[in-house]
Design a protein that fits this description.
This protein has 6 helices and 10 strands, in the order βαββαβββαβββααβα. Strand 8 and strand 9 form a beta hairpin. With 268 residues, the protein is α+β, with helices and mostly antiparallel strands. Helix 3 packs across helix 4.
Length: 268
């Protein structure tokens, strides 16, 4: 499908995957990553070596409903056809949901304006066979009310230095969280967190802290203390990865505007 005379174009894909068997999103030497599987399928489909850049480097075992990634190609496959082409080549635990052309300076990682993460918990004595790969099993009973009280203190703009695991490389730890909601449906607890950006393992640290709060092993003002002290020890353990899902990646509308569309409006 490649034509040497075709212009180089940048494509954006939205990808869903079950991260259970993968060593994470980013290509690695010591394990199979989602990026590697997707790049191999794209390279075969396009007839050229394709390198993709993801919006979020999810860890081993973490899932995604709306991961975003971009790549450059001279392939003539129409953008909207990439899901149809790639899903015949990919394993069933990776699906491409959509494709679109974006400007040449679009960047899937650095141009994001917001992300949504979901963390799922099964709070029952014996766990779940069906949900074992997508929900973390917590056998000790949890109380929803203090968890909701604590979650409300996550909202706003704060220094979240205490919410970062070792190995984080962020230049600043100031973040804004616009939604932190935890709900219970029977033995299932679902945490939803939205913000402009997140630190390394930030959502898993939030989830681990809320679990301890729900078990009355930590006070509801834990997050407030963490803002004041910037001390990782003020918060709970990092919750396991398989309960986490990258639900949505958002970009400003201006990021999608193609140069020819700008010229068209100027000439109108």
């Amino acid at each position: 499908m490649r034509n040497e005379t075709s212009p180089l174009r940048r494509m954006l894909l939205t990808v869903e995957y079950d991260g259970t068997i993968y060593s994470g999103w980013q290509r690695q030497y010591n394990g199979l990553a989602v990026q590697q599987v997707l790049e191999e399928a794209l390279s075969n489909a396009c007839g050229e070596n394709i390198v993709i850049t993801g919006a979020s480097r999810t860890d081993a075992g973490v899932h995604a409903l709306g991961q975003a990634c971009h790549f450059d190609t001279r392939c003539r496959i129409p953008p909207e056809k990439y899901p149809f082409v790639l899903n015949t080549m990919l394993p069933r635990d990776i699906r491409v949901l959509s494709g679109r052309e974006v400007p040449a300076d679009f960047h899937a990682r650095f141009m994001t304006c917001g992300k949504t993460y979901t963390y799922r918990i099964i709070n029952s004595r014996h766990g779940s066979a069906i949900k074992r790969n997508t929900h973390v099993h917590i056998p000790v009973p949890m109380d929803l009310a203090p968890m909701q009280e604590a979650a409300a203190t996550l909202l706003g703009t704060h220094d979240y230095a205490a919410f970062q695991a070792s190995g984080g490389t962020a230049k600043t730890t100031i973040r804004t969280i616009t939604r932190a909601d935890i709900q219970q449906n029977g033995d299932e607890f679902i945490l939803t967190v939205e913000g402009d950006a997140f630190l390394y393992n930030m959502v898993r640290i939030i989830a681990g802290t809320l679990i301890e709060i729900g078990q009355h092993r930590r006070d509801t003002d834990a997050f407030l203390k963490a803002y004041e002290t910037l001390d990782r020890l003020a918060l709970g353990v990092t919750a396991p990865p398989h309960g986490l899902e990258l639900t949505e990646v958002r970009y400003p509308e201006a990021a999608y505007i193609m140069p020819e569309n700008i010229r068209w409006h100027q000439d109108d």
